[in-house]
User: Fold these one by one.
Assistant:
Number 1:
Amino acid sequence: MFKPPCAVLLLSIGSLCLLAAAASGVDAGNGDHHSLELDENNWTSVLTDEWMVLFYAPWCPACKSLEPEWREFAKWSKSHSSISVASTDITISPGLTGRFIVTTLPTIFHVKDGIFRHYKMGRDKDSMVSFIKEQKWEQIDSISSWKSPNSIQMSLVAQFFKLSQKVRILHSTLMAEYGLPTWGSYLIFAIATIFIGAILGLVLVCIIDLVYPPSHHKIPVKDGKDENSDSGQESDDDDELVKDELLDDQANNEPTENEPLLRNRRKIRKTD
């Protein structure tokens, strides 16, 4: 008569164990660092006051090794109002990965009133606490303004990273749901890239033509009338010269048979 209560008790204990295991598994999978989880919507909160920001990935072994130390450092920061701690999962927020130019994992940034610096010291709690207490961040060069995450160019880079993530999701959807082969998906993206590139190129050419319109140089054209008039004047001068020579010859009582000789002489003068 005590078997049913015992069975119920055993089932209850088993259920509690399963729930605890599931909770611990979810907690580890989410990478709970006891810090603010940054994303595309709230990342601007680090532009004021002092922050330490961690970029990590759930599949990164080095990130998993850093997780206990980062958790302890986050607990310490709660008792010190001068410093706040935040973390970003790059698999969830790819835009922030491009905005901060994260190339290695884990990556830690120190932010002081919107000025960003790379933290490259020890990855244990004591090193990070010493870095904040002794203000060692003053000895580190800040990130240049053109690479700063809050600059316009880094905002454009973030949009490209978002676009790449969307393209990857679309690629997976085409293969999984529509059964397209890999080469078929690549072909679609290639045609779309060529088409979009052609449109952007046309728009760019139109903009350049509007800003810098091409200049048209006029080629001077010689007036044919002037040339004809000049040639006609030369011929008239030659005829007058021949007439003068004929009159001189007649005055000297030379025979008119010398007229061909005079014309040859005129031709020679003309060529000279």
Number 2:
Amino acid sequence: MSSQHSHLSFAFGVLGNISSFVCFLAPLPTFYRVCKKKSTEGFQSIPYVAALFSAALWLFYAYIKTGETLLITINAFGCVIETIYLAIYVTYCPKKVRMSTLRMIVLMNFVGFGTIVVLTHVLAKGEEGRVKLLGWICVVFATSVFAAPLSIIRVVIRTKSVEFLPFPLSLLLLISAVMWLLYGLSLRDIYVTLPNVVGLTFGIVQITLYLIYRKSTPVKDEKLPEHKGDVVISNEIETVVPATDDEKKIEVSVDIEIVNKKEEKKDEQHEEKKEEQVSEEKTEVKNEKEKVDVSKSGCEV
């Protein structure tokens, strides 16, 4: 029976490695564009710093807990690829952003990770105690990262558009969560299992939303009727302005033109505000999408 569980866990671990490997490579097109244009184009470094920290945490967990070779392989690769991403980012980002990124790398991946390593050895005694302490640290961090898709889900529901919810990546992340969930269950490892329960839940929600809204027309902001003011005013003209009074006709005509211009100006201002809001929302969602794509790939293991 134990041999069967061993074969199952190995199979799930290998499949998890493959799916996570592809997830780690998801940002390659982004960094190819960065190298080609020699600009980070406003992308944030937080997802990559967090992904490196996550991979290092799981690598340390696998090192402390014996027999976790499959966790070591994928997270070792994750540490290497995320380091390459960050090196490219630091090379081409603006000087001010470079300093903040380096500061964040030092604080999270050196000071933070170093503190966890020290606390693990000081506060916990023996392998079992260290595995338990480090395991819960990994669970808390990995689960918090899974909150990233919430903003994407909110935007999809509000706009009824799956523009920022690519089906292939969502499906791949779902498969990765399933494989690592089964891997954790087969080993009875609660620390690997719990984060991937959350990942599986969000993955199912994203796939469901994609199937619901994939053919939907995105919701657009309703505009005021272009001639609404004219209709109302023309009714007033019929009741107030005598047809024979030329001077009053001219005066009212001027008033109509002024009111129409005011209405047009209001419409233009309203449209500009909507465009700015949509632009800001797209930028925010773009960053959140990037955060989801990168961070989840480093935590679903």
Number 3:
Amino acid sequence: MKHSKRYLVGISALLVLVVGGGVALGRALNKDDDLMEDTTPKTMDVILTEIRSLMQDYSIEAYIIPSVDAHNSEYISLHDRRYQYVTNFTGSAGTAIIMLSKAAFWTDSRYHLQAENEIDPSYWTLMKEGVTGVPTRDEWLLSNLSPGAQVGTDPFLIASTEYERLGGVLAQHGYRLITLERNLVDIVWNNRPPQTSEE
């Protein structure tokens, strides 16, 4: 009887070790454990390369990143500053558009000098809104998209009126504006600031 109890205790301890080890291994393989997550800041080259790889997966040729959050606010939390993550621009207004081989960022006259200092021209073309000769976002897209191309956007970050307007402009020239189920910046942003309840 004593031997049976010892045997059962031994088997129970072994099961705990096996199950516990299996859970730990599963976490490691699935990268669910916070300790396994790499939060090392990515370079601009890596960020854009990863986003462009996702764009190809979604069959889009351009991706629009506005400077608003899901409430269409202009002044937003660090958690929602997707345009800042991809461009390094810290102003409160602008729109980034990434294509497979180029990228451009539009901002108004309040931020022209700031954008010049913060945006790397080897990755981004700065579009100073209001300056003669600078194309609008619509004009730039129409002059750079290939026939039949698709343009992607986050449905939570574009007003319905703007979606209909831009979608109509693109459709007139044989292009298509589509919404993606996941924001591409969110997918690659590995050290994203947490959401807060602050105003």
Number 4:
Amino acid sequence: MSESSVRQRKKTGTSDGKPRKAKTTQPSLPGVNQQNKMWARLVLIVGIAVVVYFTTFRTREKKFATQRETLELRTQKLDCSKLYFEEIAKYAGCIPADCGRFVSDKVVGPAEVDVLLNLAKSGFRFGRSSGGASILDLHSGALSKDTQFINIYKIPEAKAIFSAEHINTYKHVKDKIQLAVAENFKINKDALFLTHPTFFSRLTNETAKTIHDEYWHPHVDKETYNSFHYTTLLYLTDFGKDFTGGRFVFIDSAGKHNKTNVYIEPKRGRVSGFTSGAENLHHVEQVSAGVRYAITISFTCNQEHAMGDPKFSLDEDDGPELM
């Protein structure tokens, strides 16, 4: 084969001299490819953001006490908040071994609950808030009435509700709860003093009319009431039976974005107690149906803020005397 023939075959691209078919390629679409890449990156970024959100901003739920349980005692220890500890350290005999909270269904008996619930219902016949959150304070006489407060001791007909059984039961239950606080936080009972406000509450699902009706906002008792050092509640009705909603909720923080809602389901005769500092941020869920009755009984370590038991003088018009 001559050299010229070889050169010719190379030019045509085949060994037999036949012309080679030219390869065809699809034209590139740079705009479409770039758009696909952008969408892929966006999906990746959104996926990462979702993962970060659910691993960083998390709210867990924990049931501390359910209505079905009957608890001898359940406790949770917490670190005292700095401001709370700095203040309470001034009061010898009143410094808790640990800050925290407790629940017990064995402090107050069923018969005592019946007497106190009867007293509450009788008192609230003379006044209720129009916005769903009513209070009755036997120490000051304050009773919710529409959007205001009245003095129940100024109502002559109201005197008939305060029997000796009511008065003695109220005092006896207060003493038992005071002892429970002292035992659970390992403090001297005589270093604890009843303080204001201590009151019955009646919560319903009626629309709030004033700020006093908005009981569901998170708060710290020590910041709301400076005299508080220990807060207790005695529940007079049952969650899930007498009312729905209305659970007591502690809000525990773990870092900046993680928190745990710790629930107490109210139960007749159940007592809960806790240190009143920022370690126990809390609120009450809005009641969705029914009526929730409870008593808030508060204690101070500062004798200057002490409040005596109410001594009902049924022959006078000017209200209770303090013992």
